[in-house]
UniProtKB/TrEMBL annotation:
Residues 180-269 form the Phosphomannose isomerase type I helical insertion domain. Belongs to the mannose-6-phosphate isomerase type 1 family. Residues 5-151 form the Phosphomannose isomerase type I catalytic domain. It catalyses: D-mannose 6-phosphate = D-fructose 6-phosphate. The keyword Magnesium does not apply. Its cofactor is Zn(2+). This is Mannose-6-phosphate isomerase. InterPro entries: Man6P_Isoase-1, Mannose-6-P_Isomerase, Pmannose_isomerase-type1_CS, PMI_typeI_C, PMI_typeI_cat, PMI_typeI_hel, RmlC-like_jellyroll, RmlC_Cupin_sf. It comes from Ophiocordyceps camponoti-rufipedis. Its EC number is 5.3.1.8. Binds 1 zinc ion per subunit.
Length: 527
């Protein structure tokens, strides 16, 4: 029987938008695993590291060379019965590292039904029949364009950027502005949402149907305005994006792509900057484009992309315009705020150093991601068994990972598969008072909600990992919403216990401190 912990060799892509040489996190992480076929070239772009069982670039056991799908075919227990019954001999998610130097295409990913139709019609350009919701977590400062802006911001740009208005057309611009002026299309439920989305679709559709001659004529006008007006570009911008930011984006993307329709699309989309640890969740049928930075990206296992700009690759503008939801909202509504991972136990060293394990849990079944940050030598986290598979990548530092009696060293770029029902222990060998280095890992997991094993939920039921209970986790119930709970085995757990049966908080292992800290100390942000 296959040991439920083994190291992986993962595939590296070299698309032109990737960072070059060792500046690429994807390249550095790939190079951490010895390979006769990989030698990092300082002049070559390295864009993506793929971790999973997708046939386009499958990961392999470093010792045997077998792909994950080959291993799963003989060892379905590694996936769990429920995951194997529902998804077959493959992982339902695909984990990636993206290293972005040049903007990716303006794109969206189809929902399940549309993916099946596109794959049947054009399997060359749409190789999968699966949907592709995805989540991006920054590991370096990141920039992106994600989702449609609030209508008021789009209307502002249509009024203040003449080349943009010329392509969209006066009638479409006035119709969209009218939705703002009459308070229609507000995100708080006021006004006629359907009419507002129709106005947005008309304006965006008109832009995307602009002929090449019109785009070629208006791009120089747009770039000249961006270069000459600086802070005053686009009448100073909007509250979320300054005129200076928009001017810089226009000139940067023009340098990368020349006279491309994408230079105008950016006025319709939210511009976002993320710091390490911040995240976005992108549902199927939502428009986006990554601009720069290194990220961990996790998605449903699919390689379908519908592109419409900022790319020399195949474009399918009609499909993109037709498939979008035309939801519009401030970018903060697309950010995903992590919560304490409820199945992790920190030892005293980890707790006292401010270490943490947090969960990014999107509203889909295929995946969630746990980020673990251990900040001192000897900091340890124990993660309870889950009923599903996972993949772990180390993005910084050094340490170890153990499942049962199998213990393996970990360094930056190492990738591991962890089988179902395996308790995982990770310990740092870096960090401390004279060492700022941290041991950081990301773990993509899949555990189906109760009752969905082997069924097709269509992604409508939120992913909620099942709690693995044990006699050691008996606790004192209390009606006070923020009261600490003391576990029989000496653990401390903190959280909202107004509904004690549903609470599954991060736990701190070890004997109780003397004297016992107050609630405010236990709940401090240093954890």
């Amino acid at each position: 029987m296959q040991v439920p912990l083994f190291r992986l060799r993962c595939g590296l892509n070299s698309y032109e938008w990737g960072k070059k040489g060792s500046e690429s996190a994807a390249a550095r992480f790939a190079a951490a695993t010895p390979s006769d076929s990989l030698s990092i070239d300082s002049d070559k772009p390295y864009s993506e590291l793929w971790m999973g069982s997708h046939p386009s670039n499958p990961s392999r056991d470093i010792d045997t060379g077998r792909t994950l799908s080959e291993i799963f075919a003989d060892n379905k227990a590694l996936l769990s019965a429920g995951v194997a019954a529902r998804y077959g001999d493959r992982l339902p998610f695909l984990l990636k590292i993206l290293s972005i130097d040049k903007a990716l295409s303006i794109q969206a990913h189809p929902n399940k039904k549309l993916a099946e139709q596109l794959h049947a019609r054009d399997p060359r350009n749409y190789p999968d029949d699966n949907h592709k919701p995805e989540m991006a977590i920054a590991i370096t400062p990141f920039e992106g364009l994600c989702g449609f802006r609030p209508l008021a911001e789009i209307a502002h740009f249509l009024a203040s950027v003449p080349p943009l208005r010329s392509l969209v057309g006066d009638d479409n611009a006035r119709r969209l502005a009218a939705e703002v002026a009459t308070a229609d299309g507000t995100q708080d439920g006021g006004g006629d949402q359907e009419r507002a989305r129709t106005a947005l679709r008309s304006a965006f559709g008109a832009l995307m149907s602009s002929d090449a001659d019109a785009v070629a004529r208006e791009v120089p006008r747009l770039v000249d305005l961006a270069r000459s007006e600086g802070d005053g570009f686009a009448a100073g911008g909007v509250s979320s994006t300054t005129g200076r930011d928009m001017a810089e984006l226009v000139t940067r993307l023009h340098h990368q792509f020349g006279a491309d329709i994408g230079l105008f699309v950016l006025f319709f989309l939210n511009f976002v900057r993320l710091q390490p640890g911040e995240a976005l969740f992108l549902v199927a049928d939502d428009i986006h484009a990554y601009v720069s930075g290194d990220i961990v990206e996790c998605m449903a296992a699919s390689d379908n992309v519908v592109r419409a700009g900022l790319t020399p690759k195949f474009k399918d503008v009609t499909t993109l315009v037709d498939m979008l939801t035309y939801r519009f909202a401030p970018i903060d509504q697309q950010k995903m705020v992590p919560t304490d991972y409820p199945y992790a136990t920190l030892n005293r060293t980890a707790y006292s150093s401010g270490s943490a394990a947090v969960l990014y849990d999107p509203p889909i079944d295929e995946f969630a991601v746990v980020r673990t940050q251990l900040r001192s030598v000897g900091s340890k986290v124990t993660m309870e068994a889950i009923d599903g598979p996972s993949i772990v990548i180390c993005t910084a530092g050094r340490g170890s990972i153990a499942v049962g009696s199998t213990r393996l060293d970990v360094a930056e770029g190492f990738v591991f598969f962890v089988g179902s029902s395996a308790e995982v222990v990770m310990e740092s060998t870096v960090g401390g008072s004279d060492d700022d280095e941290e041991f950081i890992t990301f773990r993509a997991i899949c555990e189906l909600p109760q009752g969905l094993q082997g069924k097709d939920s269509g992604g409508t039921v939120p992913h909620r990992p099942r709690r693995v209970d044990s006699a050691a986790t008996n606790f004192v119930r209390t009606e006070r919403a923020t009261q600490k709970r003391l576990y029989n085995d000496g653990d401390i757990s903190i959280g909202d216990v107004s509904d004690a049966d549903n609470l599954v908080p991060l736990k701190i292992a070890g004997p109780l401190p003397t004297p016992l800290p107050t609630n405010s100390a236990l709940c401090s942000s240093s954890r």
